[in-house]
Design goal:
The protein is α+β, with helices and mostly antiparallel strands. The C terminus is likely disordered. Among the domains are: 31 residues; 144 residues, Jelly Rolls (Sandwich). It has a five-stranded mixed beta sheet. It has a four-stranded antiparallel beta sheet with strand order 2-7-4-5, with no helix packed on it.
């Protein structure tokens, strides 16, 4: 059996070899060109793939970006990253605070000075009182002051000093009292003067602050009848004044006391 199969294979091989024909030069050249075309196409396809992958990585560094490589027109994912605010909403840190703004607790110097005056609703002998901010030159003309002896008290809240002069009448240089008030932030000691008004009429008060008190410190002063014979009755809180009205040059403040003081 084996010898017969071997004989058949030998006959088949002999017939096949006799039928094989060499391809010839034209067929060989065509085969070579076909193989080169396939190789070039495969190389170009690989290069294009590498360029596209590089573009995708450059646009979206790191894995898991919103766009896939090679799909530049694809819409971004609707899922927001963990911890990010939804689209169209500002981050919580940008929301305006609903807490009230802190209010300043620093007292107003002029108000603090006014609080040191006698309670005029309970002090009928408080004839006149004024408060405000210390200026470099200030004049206050008070009319209708009866002839009497008054306790004049001048308070200054803040820092520095204030030179004070009280004169008789609406003109002239008759000085009824003068002195220097020392300012303090808390519980300032007042400048106390005894003012003797000889006749019914005007009293003029001049005050000039130094560099530390000017436009910073607050002041308040009052006239109290020491005899009790003058009592206008309760006349409300001290009135305010404008530092720019009725100013008197600081360098011209009279300091010579009257012989009646």
């Amino acid at each position: 059996m084996t010898d017969e199969l071997e004989k058949l294979f030998q006959d088949l091989r002999a017939r096949t070899l006799s039928e094989i024909v060499a391809p010839g030069a034209p067929r060989i050249r065509a085969a070579v060109r076909r193989r080169r075309t396939v190789a070039v196409s495969a190389g170009a396809g690989g290069a294009v793939a590498l360029v596209l992958v590089g573009i995708g990585v450059g646009l979206h560094p790191g894995a898991g970006g919103d766009y896939a490589a090679g799909s530049p027109n694809e819409a971004p994912s609707s899922e927001a990253p963990s911890g990010a605010a939804p689209s169209g909403e500002a981050p919580s840190s940008a929301q305006p605070s609903m807490l009230p703004e802190p209010t300043s607790t620093v007292p107003d110097p002029a108000q603090a000075a006014g609080d040191l005056l006698a309670d005029r609703s309970r002090t009928p002998t408080s004839i006149n009182a004024t408060g405000g901010v210390v200026a470099s030159s200030y004049e206050d003309d008070m009319n209708d002051m009866p002839a009497d002896t008054y306790a004049f008290r001048f308070f200054c809240v803040g820092a520095g000093t204030v030179t004070v002069v009280v004169k008789q009448g609406d003109s002239g240089d008759t000085v009824l009292g003068h002195g220097t008030a020392t300012c303090a932030a808390h519980h300032p000691a007042p400048l106390s003067l005894t003012i003797r008004q000889p006749a019914y009429g005007y009293l003029r008060i001049f005050a000039a602050g130094d560099a530390r008190s000017n436009d910073r410190a607050g002041f308040a002063f009052e006239f109290l009848s020491t005899t009790g014979k003058t009592a206008f009755g309760p006349s409300g809180p001290p009135y305010s004044f404008s530092p720019t009205s009725g100013s008197f040059p600081a360098e011209g403040l009279p300091v010579t006391p009257s012989s009646t003081n």
